[in-house]
Every structure is written in C-alpha cells, then in structure tokens.
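Subject: Re: docking follow-up (adenosine-5'-triphosphate)

Dear J.,

Thanks for your patience while I sorted out the input files. As discussed at Tuesday's group meeting, I've set up the holo structure prediction with adenosine-5'-triphosphate included as the bound ligand rather than trying to dock it afterwards. The sequence and the ligand SMILES I used are pasted below, so you can double-check that they match what you have on your end before we go further.
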Amino acid sequence: MTKIFRYFNRKQWLYVAASILFIVIQVWLDLKLPDYMSGITTLVQTEGSAMSDILIQGGYMLMCALGSMVASIIVGFFAARVAAGLAQTLRNCVYDKTMDFSMEEIDRFSTASLINRTTNDVTQIQNLVAMGLQAIMKAPILAVWAVVKIAGKSWQWTAATVVAVFVLVVALAVTLIFALPRFQRIQGLTDNLNRVTREQLTGIRVVRAYNAEGYQEKKFAVANDELTSTNLVANRVMAMMSPTMTLINSGLTLAVYWIGAYLIEAASLTDKLGIFSDMVVFSNYAMQVILAFMMLNMIFVLLPRAQVSARRICEVLDTENHIYDGAGVKAEKCGTVEFRHVSFRYPGAAADTLTDISFTARAGETIALIGATGSGKTTLINLIPRFYDVAEGQVLVDGADVQEYKQEELHNRIGYVSQKAVLFSGTVASNVAYGERGHGTVSDGEIKEAVAIAQSTDFVEKMEGTYDAPIAQSGTNVSGGQKQRLSIARAVARKPEILIFDDSFSALDYKTDRALRKALNESTAQTTKLIVAQRIGTIRHADQIIVLEHGRIVGKGTHEELLKTCVTYQEIASSQLSKEELNNG
Ligand SMILES: Nc1ncnc2c1ncn2[C@@H]1O[C@H](COP(=O)(O)OP(=O)(O)OP(=O)(O)O)[C@@H](O)[C@H]1O
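The structure tokens for the complex came back this morning:
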C-alpha cells in the first residue's frame, strides 16, 4: 500500500499537510468541549452562579462545535481532491503501462483483469484515501490527545479505558484475520465475473444461435454465486465490528459512571462535586478515545480491499516489459524483411511454434505465407512489428535487427492488417487516418486514395456523412468485409515500406479480392508485401510463396515451382484449383 504513496504529487502532499493542520484544529476544538462542559457542571452546582455565565460557557461550546464542523468540511474537501487526483494518476499510469505491454504481458494478466485493475481497483484506493485521510490522521491524534487529557485523573477510570481499548484492538485484529483473505479472493473473483460477462457479451450472437443461454447463465451463476458468497462472509465478519464497538463504548461509559459512583461515595463532602465534574469530563474524553478507534475500524473495512487493490495495481506498474526499445536505427527505408534461423515459443508452451525460419523479402516483393491452420503464419508475421521477441535467430527490417529499433520507428515502417479486422469508434476518416506514421498526418486526399485502393469508395460514399460517417465501437455498424477493407485502407494510408496482411482478404468476395489486389499492386508497387492467405488465388502471383507446416518451412518458391516441388502446396492447390488450373500452373 505504501508503494502507492509515491504516486502523490507535490500539490497532493500539500493538501495532505493542510488536512493534518485542520485535523489538529478540529481535534483541539473537539477536546475543548468537555472542558466547557466541566465548567457548566461546576457553575450549575455552585450556589449563586449567574445564568449569563452558563450561557457564555454554552456559547463557547457552540463555537467549538461550529469550528470543528468547518474544519471537518475543509478536511473532507482536501481529502476528496487528493483521492480523486491520485485515482486519476493511477489510472493514467496503469493505462500507459498497459499500452506499453507486449502481447506476452497482456496474455499473462488477461484483458478482463487489466480493465478491472484500471477501474475497480483504482476506485478502492480512491475510497480509502478519501475516507482514510480524514480518519487515519484524525484517529491517532484524537486518541493520543484525549489520553493525555485524562491521564492522571483517576487510575481506576484510566484502567477501565485501557481494558476497553485492549478489547477493541483484539476485536479488530480477529476481524482482519478472518476478513483479509476473503477480500483478497473477492478481487480475483471480480476479475473472473468480468471475464465471463465479457465473453458472453462479445459472443452474444453465437450464444443465441446455439441456444446456449442456459449454459452461459450457469457459467455466470457459478462466478456470481462464488463472488456473492465470499462477499457475504467477508461483510458479515466486518458487520460484527459495529455492534462490538457500540458494546465496548456503552460498557466503558457504564464502567466510568460505576467507578465514579464508588469514588463519589467514598469522597468527603467537599470533594464530591469535583469528582462528579471530573467523571463527566472523563467519560467524554474516554468516548473520544473510543471514537478514534471506531474511526480506525472504518478504515479497517476499506484497508484490506484497498491493500489487495494496491498490490494488484503495483503488480501491473512494476511489471518489467519484455519488449523494450532498442537504441534506434538510422537505416534507409527500403522495405526489406529477413528472417535468419528464427525460432519462437509462446511463454509457457511446451514446444516451439516456429522452428528455424529463414527467408528474405526484398524491397517491393510480394511474399505470401500459406499453410494449414495453426501452422504458425500469424505467429511468424507478428515477429516483424515485434509483438513478440524471437527465442533464437534474428528478424531484420531494412537490414537492422527489429530489436535495435525504437518501436515507434519500426512501426512507422510497417502497415499491419490483423486477422480480425479492428475498427475504433469515430468516423470512417478517423479510422483510415488512425495513429502516427512519422511523416505528417494523413491528408483528406490520402484518405480518399486509400479508401479507393481498398475498394471501399462505393460503400463509404453511400454512407450518411460519407467519410465523416460514424463508425461504432468495434465497427459493429459495418459488415465484416467492409471492416476488412477499411482496415486495409488504414494500412495503405500510412504509406509504409512494408505492408503485412494477416489473412485480410478472407471476408472479401472473389471479385473484390481480385480488384483490391490489382489496385494494391499498381499503387504500392514499391512496397514490400507479406500476405498470409488461405486462398491460392490470392497469392498465386506472389514473388515468393512460403509454405508452413507445424512451424517449419516446407516449401519456398513461386506458385509454379511449388506445384512441382512441394507436396503440402500441391495438396492445398488440388483442394482449391480445377485440373486445368493445376495443369496450366
Ligand atoms: N497467444 C498464444 N499463446 C500460446 N499459443 C499460441 C498463441 N497464439 C497462437 N498460439 C499457438 O501457436 C500455433 C500457431 O498459431 P498461429 O495463429 O500462428 O497459426 P496460423 O497458421 O496463423 O493459424 P490460422 O490460419 O488459423 O490463423 C497454434 O498451435 C496456436 O495454438
């Protein structure tokens, strides 16, 4: 939890210092009240006291109470500012860190957990700081000050207060021992619930089409029940604290008056009044001590959760990113890609996904990757933008190892179209001109040109607002093929040296596929293209086709060469092409 304090900025520390000042003022005013009360008790019991004297004392009490209220409001205001500011800083830090994560770290934490850590966990810290700043600071100041005030009054009363505080501390400790592990589980179970809900909502069409609502509901119910029951146990344990506190509080008042009754009875007539007055004052101070611990109790309700959240946030913030920037490369942008004896294994996997991959794509060439599903095509191209680092060998872009590049420099050389087309909420234009490319922003003309190359002009110009037509989150208001074409337009608009298409033509009809490839070849003749494809038709004119099987290259060459030399390619081709097409190469 203390690690989180390093995220306070100077201004927030100033607010904390100001809060402490106002808390001291508040405690001083609170503890002045019993003094005036003692004065009033004495005045009431003294013969000949004037009413005006009592009213004056009462007026002072009122002023103290009002002053305390104002100080408390000011502290609340500062605490809210500090808490909200810290929450904002933490959200920014976690978000920035997550953005820097490589796929390895994202896979390790899971998307649902990262979202939860950025939102729910940060809120837990915010709540603790908002409440804690008032209570954590006030409680010890109040407790110590009140103890100083009552010390020396009567050892019997002091002993009763010590016993009450001891019982209170034991009750707090027992509660924490039971509740803390449960609060730890609650955060993990919340992640799980988020994961199940997310999965269900993103796959809602499949769920409906397969009448799997019942199955999903059961999955959700299991996650929900587990979270609810853990929550219930933890909260029941915490709920015990409030009556325990009230019991101790009432018990102490009773003890103070009981002891007081004996002391008054045993005292001489002249001392009786003094002891009675002391008793009233002492019981007030003793209440303040208990109040301080009750405040701490409030913190202990929030602290365990916040502690777990702080640990989860720090886990993200302290994670060493496996992929870090290289020193930077000044290599001329020409568009060559070379794999030199590359092997790769996913973290935790038992075997290599790619083994000894070597090939070269020269500037302007089109390299196609084909192979059965799971043969490693996506994995291979993901090594070029350095989504993962190789285990062995080297991936070179423009003659330099990708690990030597600053990631931004590397990504500026690449236009990447992922297997699953991704669009962001915004407009057609904002999606096509997305991101930074290192050589100025994408102009309107370039957007139109890229949309035309991606064979999207027709449907974009039919949309209401054309290039400014809204695109919903994840592109749910355009079709799968339209989404793919806009993703291609986005890559083309970057005008990179290297274009990577990961099975990006799969949702296109044959006519559009052909037209798009023709337009791409004409307008991006100088650009090196790496195309993952399932259809032979998409890649048969590539300069080099690489055939992958179980993560190894089993064939390399042109369509005609592979038809003669590579059995795997022949099998793929014979399943897709007619006899004449096969015979004609
Ligand atoms: N993030 C990951 N973590 C662990 N293993 C993975 C991960 N992604 C892919 N794999 C595994 O690596 C292998 C190669 O997957 P990859 O996605 O590269 O295949 P592919 O040839 O692109 O398949 P497809 O044509 O179906 O897209 C598969 O066995 C897959 O299970």
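A couple of observations from a first look. The domain at 326-406+498-549 is CATH 3.40.50.300 (Rossmann fold). The chain has a mean pLDDT of 86.

Let me know if you'd like me to rerun anything.

Best regards,
T.
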